[in-house]
Amino acid sequence: MKELLEKINAIRSELINELKDLKDQAALKTFQETKLSKKSPINALMSNIKNLQGDERAAFGQAVNDVRKEIQDAFAKKQAEIQEAKVQEQIAKETIDITLPSVDYKVGGINPFYQIIDEITDIFVSMGYEVKEGPDVETDYYNFERMNIPSNHPAREMQDSFYITNSILLRTHTSPAQAHVMDEKKGEPIKIICPGKCFRRDDDDVTHSHQFGQVEGLVVDKNINFGNLKATLELFLRKMFGEKREVRFRGSYFPFTEPSVEVDISCMECHGKGCPTCKGTGYIEILGAGMVHPHVLEMAGYDPKEYSGFAFGVGIERVAMLRYGIDDIRKIYQGDVRFIEQFKDK
Q: pLDDT > 70: what percent of the chain?
């Protein structure tokens, strides 16, 4: 019995010393698998209990259990120490040096393209207009036919288009959205603007792009006349460019309006005197407009003898370039942060 107790103490001392030398989780795992498993040296001692009698058997079993519990407690303590040391090491690595300068977070700006859309929208919504949008991909029927531009019409050459199939294309103007609304209203009054992107094959230079933005407007009701169109556009342009702007209407041609006009505003640089910006004319062309063509009304189910209307369209980039002095339309699309930052306070 005495020899067995000495053997128990020897194993205890060996395991305690071994635990003290453990440094990481891998060593802990190895110790657990070899020294605390069913085949551990402590459990192997229990095979000697069959050679003992009575009180000696009970005393021996108690001694083995006491050592087993002591080793298990020491193992748990060592495991906690190693885990804590790992945490502290990680904290030390992630310590923030409060003497370093802070990170400079910059507030972004809104692209002038969207600033102009928002401003135009605000002006017309304040005048009682609804905002309607349409898809970028349209049918030839809505893009051309409903705008009084049949397949053999020469006006199609002015809108060289990106066709996806023989009858599907990227819209060349936002007018198709107006046609959809006219179908939905089914003869009811309309007062809408339709902002969005358009696509046409065009020269890639400082004033042209194959994609561009438009805000088109449409009013249809009884007793709508050219005076209503003129008053609306004069109010819009003076709100957009300043109360001192002079507005000029010139006769023009669009297949979907009759009569049609080009609308100019007095030059912001020379105030109508003539300069390089306005090419010496004193005015800058800003949008196209006109009274809705009777055939366009008929195709939408409106009786042109009872209903009339006017429509207009303004280029978003053109307004932005005039308002902010942007010298290259391509800058609007390039996503250069330095360009966008110029318009944060506008």
A: 97
Mean pLDDT in residue range 140-166: 87
Please say if the pLDDT value at position 11 is more than 90: no
The CA distance from 233 to 136, in Å, is: 26
Q: CB-side exposure of 146: number of CA atoms within 13 Å?
A: 20
Span 195-251, pLDDT tens digits: 999 998 876 677 778 889 999 999 999 999 999 999 999 999 999 998 888 899 999
Architecture of domain 112-343: 2-Layer Sandwich (3.30)
